[in-house]
Amino acid sequence: MVSCRFESQVVLRPLRLAALLAAIVVYGFAQDTQQPSTGPASPQNPPQNPQNPNPQPAAPQPPAPGQAPQNPPEKKESGNAAQVVGGMTKQVAEEGFRKVRDWEVGLIVGTYVAKDHPLAPLNGRQREYLYLQDTLTTPAAYWKRMFEATIDQARDSPPQWGGGWEGYGKRFASRQAQFITANTFAALGDARLGYEVRYEQCRCSGFWPRATHALARNFYTYNRSEVEKRPQWALYAGAFGAGMISAAWKPSHDVLNQGLSGVVGQAAWGTVFNLFIEFSTDINRKLGSKK
Predict the structure, then answer these.
(1) Taking phi first (over 0 means left), then psi (-120 to 50 degrees means alpha), and beta for anything else, what does residue 41 get?
(2) Is residue 86 in a domain?
(3) What gap in Å lies between CA 93 and CA 95, rounded to an integer?
(4) Any bridge partners for residue 1, and if so which?
(5) pLDDT tens by residue, 194-238
(6) Is residue 102 a part of any domain in this protein?
(7) Considering the domain boundaries, does residue 227 fall inside one?
(8) Number of domains the chain contains
(9) Is 50 exceeded by the pLDDT of residue 278?
(10) Pick from 203, 198, 279: which is nearest to 235 by CA?
(11) Is residue 246 classed exposed, middle or buried when 0-12, 13-18 and 19+ CB atoms within 10 A define those classes?
């Protein structure tokens, strides 16, 4: 009984800490939220009459004297039901294939700014949205940690957590909690400094200039001007802090080593995903995407 309780704490403790940190950063961004302004009515969105919110369509007017009555438009005969269903099925299949092919949108690489879109400063609501999307609400926030936990499982690291689903669950919980903690620290630091949190595709051309941009962009970002470069202080401070905190639930309590390991992991994975983002559009185009 004591052993089971201890094993459950190994899994739940890091996740509880990460959930608390996520709630704190969302609350902090909410303080900077601006109420959306209501613009003037447009022809596409006319204002509704509060006395009659559901106006009835006007009744047809009788023909004027001497004018022949207009015949109502003839209804077109519906096509064969099997053809309609077949067309709908084909449309759904093509749409599904398009979504699978355009896999870089949120599924793998997360949020980024395409090369034909300008960078603009982020407000509190936008930072909160990006934080939740990159940390909690998209598949990429979980499958990456699943992949890392699978590698840890294959390496039997740490060996004290054993194998099987129980060992994998501990490794996944540890990776996920460390990831959420690092993202939370980085998001708070970037918001405080006014730093850009998104990767932007290179406005250049050619493989090596774009690859160099992807590599260097993992170590610098922009301030509120979106032009002046600044070191990625918040990103790597978050990775270092999350690594040190993870030593609290890992068998090895070497705080400094865990912090440095987090920094190395951020440098490696950040570079890989920046390259992935930079060339994802080209890969999609090779697969037939018209985007």
Answers:
(1) beta
(2) no
(3) 5
(4) none
(5) 999 999 999 999 999 999 999 999 999 999 999 999 999 999 999
(6) yes
(7) yes
(8) 1
(9) yes
(10) 198
(11) buried
Taking only the tens place, the pLDDT of each residue in 48-63 is 443 444 444 445 555 4
Residue 278 lies in a domain: yes
| Tokens standing for residue 124 | 């509190």
| In the chain, % of residues over pLDDT 90 | 51
Region of residue 194 (left: phi > 0; alpha: psi -120 to 50; beta: else): left
Which residue in this structure is represented by tokens 């070191």?
Answer: 231
DSSP assignment string, 198-218: SEE--SS-SHHHHHHHHHHTT
Question: Among positive and negative, which fits the CA dihedral 127, 133, 136, 142?
Answer: negative
DSSP codes joined into one string, the chain: -HHHHHHHHHHHHHHHHHHHHHHHHHHHHHTTPPPPP-PPPBTTBPPPBTTBSSPPPPPPPPPPTT-PPPPPPPPPPP--HHHHHHHHHHHHHHHHHHHHHSTIIIIIS--EE-TTS------HHHHHHHHHHHHTSSTHHHHHHHHHHHHHHHHTSSGGG-SHHHHHHHHHHHHHHHHHHHHHHHHHHHHHHT---SEE--SS-SHHHHHHHHHHTTTEEE-TTSSSEEE-HHHHHHHHHHHHHHTTTSS---HHHHHHHHHHHHHHHHHHHHHHHHHHHHHHHHTT---
Q: Which two tokens stand for residue 17?
A: 């800490």
> Helix axis angle, 164-193 relative to 255-286, nearest 10°?
90
The 3-state secondary structure of 215-272, one letter per residue = HHCCCEEECCCCCCEEECHHHHHHHHHHHHHHCCCCCCCCHHHHHHHHHHHHHHHHHH
Range of the domain at 184: 95-286
The two structure tokens encoding residue 202: 């290179």
Q: Which residues does residue 45 pair with via DSSP β-bridges, in sequence order?
A: 42
**Residue 197 and residue 190 in contact, taking contact as beta carbons nearer than 8 Å:** yes
